[in-house]
């Protein structure tokens, strides 16, 4: 089977979902990502990444409890699937193997 | 909900929008997230920012990903076609079927495409015209900062506006308000002058302007610089005049003779001003300083600070930091300050910006705007209507046709067509027809444009390279295509195949109602336009038939624009009479077709002291009356036999009424004073129409004055051919005025020019009316043939049962005739309303008589009958055996 690749942003979202361990939904994901990466993220970007991840089978979702600040609306909570976990690990492995082969990591910044 | 609560909520409109476009299965979580983020932001960044961001976030969700509904007909992806609705194969098929359908019904297709193309062509032409009107004067780079000084006043409860300015105004503005103006330019008005270089002599229109004019107009210099008017004895020529005078030789520093009296050095050549600018006639510019130096009356006006001699024009370019309103406010009372004696008409100066010159200059007597913009609106509306008519036709025909295709829909569905495919099919067809119509209309526009330019007095080019033009054309094509495709696309595709194929499509009694409404609308517009055309033509005819009070036949005028023509009155007259080609000659301050001077300062016995009188004033010679052939109703003509006539005066009938006298004979022989100088009134003439033939005649006095002469009036001998007479007259003029070309104008032609605007309207209105009728008839023809076809069987049965051809004809035409009658009934009051408003503009106007409505209605009826009858009779003559046997 062809392996599915992830975009950079998708990867970050997926990681964040993993980190949040079942409490992940749109707004908190956005806030968390903004905090960690310090970049401007819009809600629709998060949602579309989640949708794509769900289509690729990396995450699954279910509706949570309604809350007052959401005007009584339920949130959609996301969890990483087994495939998602495997993919994350694979990505990590590939990166690590490259980093290991990098002889002098500090030179990078000056050489360019 | 209180205002406070409302503010702490996310913007409702944004929420509504989100609910509208967002797919229902995603809405809850998305909206929840948005609200939560909003609440968080409201606390951290403030409510205003939160509300702004909310909008921004909502709009971020406007993407197909969130809009697409979950269970819309999405097919699983497969190998041969990504999407069965819009795949290349399906598109090809749509186009092929659409094309076959067009070819199969050639007649309908032709009517459809032809009618729509014609309508679009008209709309495009009108659109181009309107665009050109709004682009007027935009050639000048400082368009936004140029203005002319105008004055507003009120006299005898009538408001008037004009742009005649006193000569000292220019210096005053430049000196006192130096900060507000970049340029102040005085103008002598663009008028005809004689230009000569060597043997070449021409009469051309030009203007004396201050040195800043080339900068103000941002003239595009071909040779020389814009500083060319600094020297008093210089002249700048337009490219075409330079070409005419010098051919290919270099005109710079050559000496040109102006009006046979001034030798001027050419210091610049500028690109001709385009036709859609106010100063398009400006073929040369001479310095204002030269004008002041050579014209004594102008010099006097400036030296003596004459603020009440309004004979010039003042143009300004304001500085970037100033505004028209601010400057208008400052200069408002300028005239009043310098000429307090004008207080009785409350003169107020103001700046009229260049962007208002063409369309928004013109006011009626109550001070309301009454200008060219109204025609722009009028034609704009007509254009929209014609386009509407054509589109209505198109929709009517396509819907009528599509009912025939119910079976096709049934079969397509039965073999497995998606509804969306049918929708696409119908849209493709209508878009194809509209697309073809668009191509046709473009070719029509290219063909018609030269004729249109002539009628409309324009020089519009086909905007091949204008992206906006093509974009809007494309947009219109799409919109019309989609609108006319909507009904068949969505209504027909909803049929259930079982019912349709069984033959029980019940389109219902009301299915034809929208179509009928559209036909009525169409004919209402057409009949209104017909009535409008008749009234406009009637109004012109009414004014043309007006008695004009003098004899135009064989009357010519020659402008006295060189010094040689002055001082030889008797010698010139004798020589002209001796040729036998001339019956009489005289000079006057103005030609009989013009009224260029009016004054107050008159006194007479029994004058109402409250009357601020104003008479048209004209200087004439003894022979003027006999030359133009005026008619006396009291008293006698000016005559050399009475020495006292050297201070004689002739009034017109209107002047007598204006003075409050009951009978003309009361004034004859009495004294009338003008600025203290006594004149004897020797006679009263029938009113002469000198100004607009649509306006009442102005009270006018004709005074004997040999020095106040601007034109020579010549009455040619009616017993000789005009050509040979003119040749003889020309020889005499060449003798007296060797340095100038012999230019003359026929009075009857000049008079005819007064109708130019109205005749232009009449021509355009009738052209549009004809088009509207044509388009409506095309539509009717198509509908009639369709009905006839649909009812073939019914007609067959009726015939078998004994109906006569006449019966059937009445049956088939009856429906349409009823609709047209209804249209006539609706259009009559509409037309009456608009036309009576239009006629109010003219003081001398025709009435809207009942026969106009009857004529228009019966005309429309006749055309309808002709159109419909052809189809009706053809259907009625069909052999019932043939029409009934097919099933």
Describe the structure.
Chain A: Pfam families: PadR (PF03551). Chain A: InterPro entries: Tscrpt_reg_PadR_N, WH-like_DNA-bd_sf, WH_DNA-bd_sf. Chain A: This is PadR family transcriptional regulator. Chain A: Residues 18-90 form the Transcription regulator PadR N-terminal domain. The complex is a heterodimer of chains A (112) and B (887). With 112 residues, chain A is α+β, with helices and mostly antiparallel strands. Chain A has one domain (8-103): Orthogonal Bundle (Arc Repressor Mutant, subunit A), CATH 1.10.10. Chain A has helices at 8-20, 26-37, 43-55, 82-101, 107-111; strands at residues 59-67, 73-80. A two-stranded antiparallel sheet of chain A has the order 1-2. In chain A, helix 1 (8-20) crosses helix 3 and helix 2 (26-37) packs across helix 3. Chain B has 887 residues and is an alpha+beta fold. Chain B has 4 domains: 3-67; 143-357, no CATH class; 374-542 and 756-885, no CATH class; 555-753, no CATH class. Helices cover 51% and strands 16% of the residues of chain B. Chain B is built from 31 helices and 25 strands. Chain B starts with a helix and ends with a helix. The A-B interface holds A 25-27, 30-31, 42-45, 47-48, 51, 63, 67, 69-71, 73-76 and B 26, 28-37, 39-40, 56-57, 60-61, 63, 65-66.
């Amino acid at each position: 089977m062809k392996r599915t690749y992830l975009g950079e942003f998708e990867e970050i979202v997926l990681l964040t979902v993993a980190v949040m361990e079942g409490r992940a939904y749109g707004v908190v994901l956005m806030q968390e990502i903004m905090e960690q990466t310090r970049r401007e993220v819009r809600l629709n970007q998060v949602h579309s990444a989640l949708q794509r991840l769900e289509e690729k089978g990396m995450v699954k979702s279910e509706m949570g409890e309604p809350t007052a600040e959401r005007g009584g609306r339920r949130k959609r909570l996301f969890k990483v699937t087994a495939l998602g976990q495997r993919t994350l690990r694979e990505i990590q492995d590939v990166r690590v193997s490259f980093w290991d082969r990098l002889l002098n990591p500090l030179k990078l910044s000056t050489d360019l | 909900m209180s205002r406070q609560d409302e503010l702490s909520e996310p913007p409702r409109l944004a929420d509504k929008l989100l609910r509208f476009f967002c797919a229902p299965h995603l809405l809850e979580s998305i909206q929840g997230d948005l609200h939560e983020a909003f609440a968080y932001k409201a606390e951290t960044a403030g409510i205003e920012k939160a509300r702004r961001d909310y909008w921004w976030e909502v709009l971020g969700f406007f993407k197909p990903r969130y809009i697409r509904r979950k269970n819309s007909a999405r097919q699983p992806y497969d190998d041969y076609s990504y999407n069965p609705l819009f795949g290349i194969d399906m598109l090809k098929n749509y186009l092929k079927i659409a094309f076959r359908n067009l070819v199969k019904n050639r007649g309908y297709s032709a009517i459809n495409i032809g009618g729509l193309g014609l309508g679009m062509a008209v709309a495009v032409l009108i659109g181009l015209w309107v665009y050109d009107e709004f682009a007027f004067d935009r050639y000048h780079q400082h368009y936004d900062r140029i203005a002319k000084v105008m004055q507003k006043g009120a006299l005898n409860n009538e408001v008037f506006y004009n742009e005649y300015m006193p000569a000292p105004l220019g210096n005053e503005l430049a000196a006192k308000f130096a900060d507000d103006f970049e340029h102040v330019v005085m103008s002598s008005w663009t008028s005809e002058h004689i230009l000569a270089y060597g043997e070449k002599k021409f009469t051309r229109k030009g203007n004396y302007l201050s040195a800043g004019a080339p900068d103000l107009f941002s003239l595009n210099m071909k040779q020389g610089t814009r500083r060319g008017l600094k020297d008093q004895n210089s002249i700048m020529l337009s490219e075409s005049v330079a070409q005419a005078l010098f051919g290919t030789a270099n005109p710079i520093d050559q000496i040109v003779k102006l009006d046979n009296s001034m030798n001027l050095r050419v210091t610049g050549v500028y690109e001709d001003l385009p036709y859609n600018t106010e100063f398009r006639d400006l073929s040369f510019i001479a310095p204002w300083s030269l004008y002041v130096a050579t014209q004594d009356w102008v010099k006097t006006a400036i030296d003596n600070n004459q603020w009440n001699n309004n004979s010039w024009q003042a143009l300004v370019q304001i500085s970037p930091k100033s505004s028209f309103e601010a400057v208008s406010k400052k200069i408002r009372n300028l005239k009043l300050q310098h000429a307090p004696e004008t207080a009785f008409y409350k003169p107020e100066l103001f700046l009229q910006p260049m962007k208002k010159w063409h369309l928004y200059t013109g006011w009626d007597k109550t001070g309301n705007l009454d200008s060219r913009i109204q025609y722009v609106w009028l034609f704009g509306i007509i254009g929209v209507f014609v386009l509407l008519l054509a589109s209505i036709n198109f929709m009517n025909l396509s819907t009528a046709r599509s009912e025939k295709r119910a079976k096709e829909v049934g079969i397509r569905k039965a073999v497995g067509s998606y509804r969306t495919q049918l929708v696409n099919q119908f849209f493709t067809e209508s878009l194809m027809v509209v697309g073809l119509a668009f191509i046709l209309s473009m070719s029509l526009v290219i063909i018609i444009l030269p004729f249109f330019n002539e009628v409309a007095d324009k020089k519009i080019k086909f905007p091949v390279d204008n992206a906006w033009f093509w974009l809007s054309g494309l947009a219109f094509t799409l919109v019309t295509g989609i609108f006319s495709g909507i009904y068949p696309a969505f209504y027909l595709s909803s049929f259930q195949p079982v019912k349709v194929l069984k033959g029980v499509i019940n389109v219902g009694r009301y299915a034809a109602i929208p179509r009928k409404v559209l036909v009525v609308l169409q004919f209402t517009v057409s009949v209104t336009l017909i009535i409008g055309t008749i009234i406009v033509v009637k109004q012109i005819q009414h004014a043309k038939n007006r008695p004009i009070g003098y004899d135009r036949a064989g009357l010519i005028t020659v402008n006295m624009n060189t010094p040689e023509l002055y001082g030889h009155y008797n010698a010139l007259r004798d020589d002209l009479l001796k040729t036998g080609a001339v019956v009489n000659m005289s000079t006057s301050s103005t030609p009989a077709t013009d009224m260029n001077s009016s004054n107050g300062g008159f006194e007479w016995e029994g004058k109402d002291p409250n009357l601020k009188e104003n008479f048209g004033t004209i200087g004439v010679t003894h022979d003027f009356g006999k030359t133009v052939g005026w008619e006396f109703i009291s008293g006698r003509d000016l005559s050399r036999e009475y020495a006292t006539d050297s201070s004689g005066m002739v009034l017109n009938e209107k002047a007598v009424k204006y003075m409050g006298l009951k009978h003309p004979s009361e004034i004859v022989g009495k004294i009338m004073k003008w600025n203290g100088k006594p004149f004897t009134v020797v006679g009263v003439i029938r009113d002469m129409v000198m100004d607009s033939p649509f306006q009442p005649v102005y009270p006018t006095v004709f005074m004997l004055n040999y020095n106040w002469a601007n034109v020579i009036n010549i009455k040619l001998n009616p017993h000789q051919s005009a050509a040979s007479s003119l040749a003889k007259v020309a020889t005499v003029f060449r003798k007296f005025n060797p340095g100038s070309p012999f230019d003359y104008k026929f009075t009857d032609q000049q008079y005819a020019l007064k109708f130019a605007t109205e005749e232009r309207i009449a021509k355009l209105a009738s052209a549009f009316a004809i088009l509207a009728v044509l388009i409506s008839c095309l539509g009717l023809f198509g509908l009639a043939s369709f009905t006839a076809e649909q009812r073939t069987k019914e007609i067959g049965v009726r015939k078998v049962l004994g109906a006569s051809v006449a019966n059937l004809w009445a049956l088939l035409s009856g429906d349409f005739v009823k609709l047209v009658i209804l249209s006539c009934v609706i259009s009559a009051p509409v037309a009456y309303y608009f036309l009576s408003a239009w006629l109010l503009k003219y003081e001398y106007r025709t009435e809207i008589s009942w026969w106009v409505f009857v004529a228009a209605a019966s005309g429309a009826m006749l055309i309808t009958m002709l159109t419909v009858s052809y189809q009706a009779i053809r259907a009625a003559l069909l052999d019932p055996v043939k029409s009934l046997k097919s099933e």
